[in-house]
Amino acid sequence: MKRQKRKATPKRKQGPCSGAQTTPQAAPRKKLRSRRDLLQNIGFGVLGIGVVGGSGWYLAGSVHASILERDFSRLGNGIPTVVQVHDPHCPQCRDLQREVCKALSELDDAEIQYLVADIRQPEGRAFAAENGVGHVTVLLFDGSGTRRGVMVGQNSSDVLLNEFRNLIRRSASG
Fold first, then answer.
1. What angle do CA 96, 102, 103 make, to 5 degrees?
2. Helix, strand, coil proportions of the chain in percent (round to 5)?
3. SS3 category, 171
4. Quick check: 138 pLDDT over 80?
5. What's phi and psi for 94, nearest 5 deg?
6. pLDDT, tens only, 121-131
7. Percent share of the chain, pLDDT over 90
8. Residue 139 · residue 150 · CB < 8 Å
9. Residue 130 to residue 139: CA distance in whole angstroms
10. What is the pLDDT of residue 64?
11. Cα–chain center distance at 6
12. Is a pLDDT exceeding 90 seen at residue 71?
């Protein structure tokens, strides 16, 4: 039977002699990575940058759209406008907002614009009070900013789409 070789145990370094000066020890060197590891880490980095960048782009677009939806100075700019008086904590308001957005998706953005009067914000509360309406309400304005209709309560996207088309038609004719 063959004898197995034993691993040689590393010899212990002897400490510096008394009276000798100590030299600062260099930091241990990191193991050099292979090209595959380097490329894999670069890939993960690019993926991470893409995720962070994409998230930032989406959030910036979302914030920009939210700001535009609450800009009442756009009312009366020549484009018919739908204004939803909205309470974000109200389930009926959220359902109505889904139906309004579904109806508006059938129309061109240049034909009609959408604004939200959030009654939890001072501007939205003032707008609702000025028009004498509560939440779960859709107000229809022509291009000159004149109120042409009020829809109170829950409505389906088909009914809303029909009203929006009528508003566009009336605004175009005069």
1. 90
2. 45, 15, 40
3. helix
4. yes
5. -65, -40
6. 899 899 999 99
7. 24
8. yes
9. 12
10. 44
11. 64
12. no
Distance CA 45, CA 47 (A): 5
Confidence of residue 95 (pLDDT cuts 50, 70, 90): very high
Question: Which amino acid appears at position 84 of this protein?
Answer: Q
1: which residues sit within 8 A by CB, 6+ positions away? Answer: none
| Contact criterion met (CB below 8 Å) for 82 and 114 | yes
Neighbours of 114 (CB within 10 A): 21
Q: For tokens 């018919």, name the residue.
A: 80
Please state, as a whole number, how many other Cβ atoms lie within 10 Å of the Cβ of residue 172.
Answer: 11
Top pLDDT among 136 and 67 is at 136
Confidence of residue 22 (pLDDT cuts 50, 70, 90): low
Residue 146 tokens read as: 């004149």
